[in-house]
Amino acid sequence: METIYKADNERYRNGMKYRRCGESGLLLPEISLGLWHNFGSVDNFENCKKILHCAFDHGITYFDLADNYGPVPGSAEETFGRMMQTSFKPYRDEIVVSTKAGHDMWEGPYGSWGSRKHLISGLDQSLKRMKLDYVDIFYSHRYDPETPIEETLQALVDIVRSGKALYVGISKYPKYKAQFAYDYLRQNNVPCLVYQGRYNMLTTEVDDENIITDAAENGAGFVAFSPLAQGLLTDKYLNGIPENSRVAKGGFLKREQITPEILYIVEQLNRIALNRGNTLAEMALAWLLADSNVTSVIIGASSVEQLKENLRCLDVAPFSDEDITEIENILKNR
Ligand SMILES: NC(=O)c1ccc[n+]([C@@H]2O[C@H](COP(=O)([O-])OP(=O)(O)OC[C@H]3O[C@@H](n4cnc5c(N)ncnc54)[C@H](OP(=O)(O)O)[C@@H]3O)[C@@H](O)[C@H]2O)c1
């Protein structure tokens, strides 16, 4: 017989810290969990359940989804819906759930991008799959260059007014479109809660465009996705491509992305991490959280062991001036 899950009584005393998301009232955990990979219908539900239980037991209160997560698209939301009907049912008010619409989801002219038609229908479908009445955060998943941006943003405003989302956010918007969104949403009394962008030690795009400081100056938080560069910022690819890794399983990280140049940088970072007494994953996450304008990093994990290792980033020693200089010198070669 299946045992009934009871969350750890110590979950808010296990070391998790919470940061205010921009100028909102919402606190998010420094580490959040994303369900992009590992939680689809192709994955083992018992393993999904263990990871989600472990996350909540360690103070992770924010779970990040999108309509297209799987595979198959939609199935990560169905997995989360099963959890909301069982383990997490008593804890709805302790959990922040986000979803997104804007990437390809269903066939035909309304199944993607940023029209009002797509966003509102997409959210309705997500709520059904997740067995929820509302999500905490609804994101426009990407900027749509062919839909008037006012239409996309007004749909976000109306979604909040309808009660189907408490807050809204934007993801991967180019700098000037993000500024338009911050202004429009503020003028319509539904301030943008958060910008979600790819941010890890191997990327430069967010820094190049000052996305994080722009978000802060506009009262929005910033959450980092793919903070481990999909697993590249661990020691796992240093000696080849392990079985069952995202690359071996044909996920979004491709063999061609693991170039000798990238591996050289990862090796050097791994050496510094080991000298500091950290794993590379711990150090890579702590590096992002050293910026107080980063509200949360959304990690992925395919096992409880990975999740536990990543959570240890919360305990690592601060970076010394020597560490910072050495790391910045390595990152100049990205
Ligand atoms: N807004 C957007 O457009 C967007 C885009 C991408 C992601 N996201 C969000 O961000 C979340 C996280 O993205 P991500 O999965 O790319 O994050 P990530 O943390 O960079 O990568 C996670 C993957 O790295 C590997 N890994 C994690 N910890 C490890 C460890 N300690 N040791 C060895 N390998 C480890 C695992 O892959 P394997 O074990 O399978 O190799 C895991 O699935 C997503 O779930 C989603 O919610 C949003």
Outline the structure in words.
This protein has one domain: NADP-dependent oxidoreductase domain (TIM Barrel). 37% of the residues lie in helices and 14% in strands. It starts with 17 loop residues before the first strand and ends with a helix. The chain has 334 residues and is of the alpha/beta class. The protein binds NADP nicotinamide-adenine-dinucleotide phosphate. The site of NADP nicotinamide-adenine-dinucleotide phosphate has 30 residues, from strand 10 and helix 10.
Which spans of ≥5 residues are poorly predicted at pLDDT below 50? none
Question: What spatial form do the alpha-carbon principal axes imply?
Answer: globular
Q: Classify the beta-strand content into a percent band.
A: 5-15%
Q: What is the CATH top level name?
A: Alpha Beta
Head-to-tail CA distance between termini: 52 Å
Second CATH tier, the architecture: Alpha-Beta Barrel
The figure for the number of domains is 1
- Number of helical elements: 11
Oligomer class: single chain
CATH superfamily: NADP-dependent oxidoreductase domain
Q: SSE order in H/E notation? A: EEEHEHEHEHEHEHHEHHEHH
What strand line-up does the widest sheet have? 3-4-5-6-7-8-9-10
Small molecules (ligands, ions, cofactors) in the structure: NADP nicotinamide-adenine-dinucleotide phosphate
Task: Enter the CATH topology name.
Answer: TIM Barrel
What Rg do the Cα atoms give?
A: 19 Å
Structural class, by secondary structure, is alpha/beta
Helix content: 25-40%
Give the tally of β-strands.
Answer: 10
Mean pLDDT, to the nearest integer, reads: 97
Q: Summarize the biggest pleated sheet.
A: 8 strands, parallel, barrel
